Model the fold of this input.
Amino acid sequence: MPKLIVDGKEIEVPAEHTLLQACEAAGAEIPRFCFHERLSIAGNCRMCLVEVKGGPPKPVASCAMGVRDLRPGPNGEPPEVFTRTPMVKKAREGVMEFLLINHPLDCPICDQGGECDLQDQAMAYGVDTSRFHENKRAVEDKYIGPLVKTSMNRCIHCTRCVRFTSEVAGVGDLGAIGRGEDMEITTYLEHAMASELQANVIDLCPVGALTSKPYAFKARPWELTKTESVDVMDAVGSAIRIDARGREVMRILPVINDDVNEEWISDKTRFVWDGLKTQRLDRPYVREGGQLRPASWGEAFQRIAAKVKEAAPDRVGAIAGDLAAAEEMFALKLLIDALGSPNLDCRQDGTVLHPELGRASYLFNATIVGIEEADAILMVGSNPRREAPVLNARIRKRWRMAGGLPIAYVGEQMDLTYRAERLGAGTQTLGDLVNGAHGFADVLRKAERPLIIVGQGALSRPDGAAILGLVAKLAQATGAVNDGWNGLSILHTAAARVGGLDLGLVPGEGGLDARAMAEAGALDMLFLLGADEIDVAPGAFVVYQGTHGDRGAHRADVILPGAAYPEKSGLFVNTEGRVQRADRATFPPGDAREDWAILRALSEHLGHRLPFDDLGALRRQLVEAKPLFGAIDEIAPGEPLDLPAVAARAGDTLDVAQLASPVDDFYLTNPIARASAIMAECSALARGNLPLAAE
Amino acid sequence: MSVRRLAPAEIQPPSFAFSAENAVWAGHQIAKYPDGRQASAVIPLLWRAQKQAGGWVPQKAIEHVAEVLGMGYIRVLEIATFYTMFNLVPVGRHFVQLCGTTPCMLRGAQELRKQLVGRIGPEKTVSADGEFSWAEVECLGACCNAPMVQINDDFYEDLTPESLDKLLDDLAAGRPVKIGPQNGRVSSEPEGAVTTLTDSTLYDGSVVGAWRTRFEQEEKAKAEAAAAAAAAQAEAEAAKAQPATPATTRPEQKASDSPAKRVAEGLPPVPAAADHAASAATAPEQQERVRGGSEAPATDAGNTGDKPKG
Done:
């Protein structure tokens, strides 16, 4: 590795590093606007100028100069870089002066104020007056979608947003039209952007040109309480920061987590917060004469206790929903076990995944980071762009890195933002792949690290077990599971699912699964822990514990108001099996309580008091029962995948129908999103119900 | 320069597609680039689309080019708005681009501008009959014929307000017009009499190789001078008493006496003294060259032709 001296400090960095990275490695801070670690290098803002001995005799844009391009001194001394010399300061001040020539003095009314790169760097390199006496440039604001507000006078033409949409999001919506001073960032004829990751340009914009439209003029960054947490909108478990003012969640931002989401989050993750304020269940309700009426906690509990006493234990059941944390699922399992019922399930979509085959049979075994090592990818019944946009961005990143990575899918036609070949519609094609009759089987076989992504679209069908068996056979045939690589990866859509399977929330002996429980006459009493994605037939007495007046609440006979994910501390396990802790950023509204506490209180009324009094005790018991929950942010090493056992599940009759993603509408997958006006607007736009361009 | 936008929706044509001929042409352009780099053909295709659409690029043309090349619409829009030679609004049948950069400005572009405003109307508006529109552009590279305009594909140079007016009259009436200088100049030759490079031998080929003869002659003179000096030295040594005289290393020549001039006057290119030297030393090559020169179409090469061959 070449050596160089940065401000008198000798360091060694890889030759492919840029000077900017080398300076950072040496602890020198380099101001920048256009440079971003995860985007291509543009080198157009010129803010990162440094002085180099052994390089060109002028200030050098450190973001665009490679370490390998520096020359050693005449006697072999390492090249020297200076970041604090008067020449550097003067050069940067010159750049800043030019940037500020056309930048409006908007800071007092700009949403970026307080977290603006330009503002911060002007403190270091700005001058207090302007020598520019001409008119400032004026640029018309553009409509680029319902999520991103533009204020184009402020744009400094760093082109981060353009590079993001074309490189990471893969849609190429944004562009820079015109030239020179008249360059303008816009979408084609001001159509709305069409990416699920579009709002990341808000974070990328170093000035206030692109800001959050729903959050516009709502709060200042220094007023907000910041809580790092985990997203539950999909099973990826993106790291997020929840910014709250008082009891209100004001916005959600991504946090860098290279193992999971890098630094992107989907639009649903970012803008679901307005759904936390509407349709909320803030007090218990009981149904009387067909109408729900507000009730006290005691009354609601008594009503439930009376019903449970009437019902035989095997006529009682419980279904855990998609947003439940591990703690409340654990408490629910303890409670249902105590009642003596085998009817417990966390798989309301009917997926066939089951913990009996080992943990590796239901995880994204390749891991999200592992996608970057895959050399051939096959997707079965999954549309990652809709089910996990951030994970899809990772696949796209791999595709761009590899330059022609073979990617194919079985299922409905889809646009994944990268080139992927559609092999066929359904199980027939899958059978061909297993037999080697299809050409892509060869590609997988030749690949060293083939990645097979199986979606819930395949596994939640009635013939899901057979499809899983087929896929396992394909994995066997292509060597997708070998030493040091497990390419058979299940992509989940529900944040709670892997946790639920880890905790064993599946029917006990003779118990009914979720679909069977929801059928008419199956049960007398059904407890829904935030389960909204299942239709419960009339008949059973339904208790719904959840946050929003959604499908589950409409069907319920008793409603227990719970806490949404920013309002409780809980453990979530993402699709790769990574245990992550979501922290509480705010409090549940009204009489609503944290879910584990509701179950604990209910257990007392049912005569089976749960053995914990606080969250700490609950977590201790949880970790005791399932030690893997003790390793936060890690993927507990599990037993190797018993592929033959999974493959042995094949043989059931296969349905020839086309495989399709379970996520029909990306923006409306859970009760919080369905309560959100922003998500409703995005959904309407995506479905073509709103005009694309502002008229 | 100012912000450039697409033409308003009401004047945009409802559709655009390359004509059969242009589609074939576009296919050839695209085929020039390796697979996956089809987007490189975007500028030629846009240019052709502009021609087909009557001198401007409609929105549908941008979309058509994008579809042909498999690019995003925004990527093609970026290019169409970046290059000012893509007109985004309709132009007249005769689109006058007036050069307004320094040389033309000094030579009266502002007068032409006034003329255009008076005759056609404000910049970038099409005259009522649809015949003309005009725009001021940056340097078109015909500075030695300033001031000038480009009308559609052709340059009209050395203009005065009057000659521009007449030019536009002719164009409007469909009369043939002369491309290039409008004041009688031949391309960018000096106005009036030719004062430089008037020597006709420059053009008859007679000077080809003449320079070599001259150097050979010098060499020979040098050698003779050296021999003379040696002889003189020997004499001096014999005499001892006489001081040595400096040898002239170069034969005296009149300033006006050049091979080219001599050829022009009908004399051999080199004085007679060089003649036998040429045949003795480098005779074949040298004479070949001289003859070669005489065979070129020339007005006055008889003298070399008279010489014996070989």
Remarks:
- The CA atoms of residues 62 and 642 of chain A lie 51 Å apart.
